[in-house]
Structures are given as structure tokens and as C-alpha cells.
Amino acid sequence: MSVRLSSRAWLAVAAGLLVFAFFALQLLLQGPFTRLDHQLAQWFAAHRTGWLNAMMLFVADAHETEKVLAATAVLAAWRAWRHDGADLRLLAVVPAGMLVNLALKHAFQRDRPVLEDPLVHLTTYSFPSGHAVASTVFYGALCLLAWHHARAPGLRAAAAAGAAAMVLLVCASRVYLGAHYLSDVIAGVAVGTLCVVAFQHWRSLGRLAPGA
């Protein structure tokens, strides 16, 4: 038995594809948004403050690949203990999303922002942002888990708002620190959203399978 994507899921897919395609073309063609990218990076570099530097460095460090994967592994172990294979399928979006991002980085090979006084020193490629993808798939999966297991509208709304706020904070930290351009993080959220929709669909299919 199969299940169709909902209209909201199709809307998310369409939006994700359009957003990623737009910024990918801007990068490949060196469109006007790339100039805005550079201007914004320079503006943030010129308007830093000590306390905000510390906060953004903390946020970025807390969402490094190893830490996000470790948190996902703990959640997966809990769902495995509860014998919930559907939730495990959904949580698989986190490592899968990171692999997709790695492939895209090597496909586009965009250099990181170049600043006179960088707060972070990275040698990997910039587009799309790995932190943006990782936070989107991780908090997106958490939000969907909350929606599947909590029926109260208030709890569902809080889960959605919390997930959106965390993704926004992580993305802001990457642009503020000069680790990424604005288009990198927006494209990363688009990629992460597409991954979450795909794995949520896989989770739904698993729920309908015999013995699931």
C-alpha cells in the first residue's frame, strides 16, 4: 500500500526545489545576489560585538556534525528501545542529509567568505551550508516526532516554533561568524527541507507496511 504526499508536503517540495535552484543559478552565473552575499558578509564583520561573538560561536560549536550525529544516535537508540521502526526511518534523515550536503559542496565548490579578521577558519567548501542542512533535518525530525506523538495543538505549535527558531539561530550564527554567505544557509535550509519531506514520506510508508 502507498500513501500520497499531502498538499503541504508538495508545497514544501516545490518551494525547496525553487529556492535551491534560484541560489544555485545565482552562484553559477554570478548573479546579483552574490554581490549582496559579499556586502552582507562585510557588514557583519564590521558590526561585531564581544558578547554576540561568544554566543554565535557557542551556537555554531553546539551544532557541529559530530554533536548533531551523537544527539541523533541517542534519539535513535531510544526509539529502537521502544521498537518504533517508523521513527528510526525518520531519524535516518540526519546522516542522509549530511551526505547529500557533502555531495553538493563538492559539486559547486564555492569558496568561503574572505574576511580581514575571521572568527572561524575553515577550508571546506561553502555552498550549501552544512550547519543549515544539519539543523534543518535534525530539528525538522524532532518537530515531526513531536507531531506524531503529541496530540495537543499547543505542544505541536511549540514544537514547530522551537524548531524554526533553532534553525534560524544556527543559520544566523554561520552568516554572522563569516563562515557562510546568506545564500549558503538559505540553500541549506531548502536542501534540508527536501530531505525531511522525503524521509517523512518513507516513515509514512513504513507505518502502512505489514507488521510495521
Form type: globular
- The residue-averaged pLDDT reads 90
Structural class: mainly alpha
Distance between the termini: 12 Å
Number of domains: 1
Oligomer: single chain
How many β-strands, per DSSP? 0
Instruction: Provide the helix percentage.
Output: over 70%
Total number of helical segments? 9
Task: Determine Rg (CA atoms, Å).
Answer: 18 Å
Largest sheet: none
What are the secondary-structure elements, in order, as H or E? HHHHHHHHH
Low-confidence stretches: 208-212
Strand content: under 5%
Keywords: Membrane, Transmembrane, Transmembrane helix
Organism: Ramlibacter pallidus
Protein name: Phosphatase PAP2 family protein
Structure, explained:
The protein is mostly helical and 212 residues long. It has one domain (7-208). The chain contains nine helices and no strands. It has helices at residues 7-29, 32-46, 50-62, 65-81, 85-91, 93-108, 130-149, 153-176, 182-208. Helix 4 runs antiparallel to helix 5.
Ordered list of secondary-structure elements with their pairings:
Blueprint: H1 7-29, H2 32-46, H3 50-62, H4 65-81, H5 85-91, H6 93-108, H7 130-149, H8 153-176, H9 182-208
Helix pairs in contact: 1-9, 3-8, 4-5, 5-9, 6-7, 6-9, 7-8, 7-9, 8-9
Protein name: Phosphatase PAP2 family protein
Domain Phosphatidic acid phosphatase type 2/haloperoxidase: 88-200
Pfam family, one: PAP2
Short synopsis of the structure:
The chain has helices spanning 7-29, 32-46, 50-62, 65-81, 85-91, 93-108, 130-149, 153-176, 182-208.
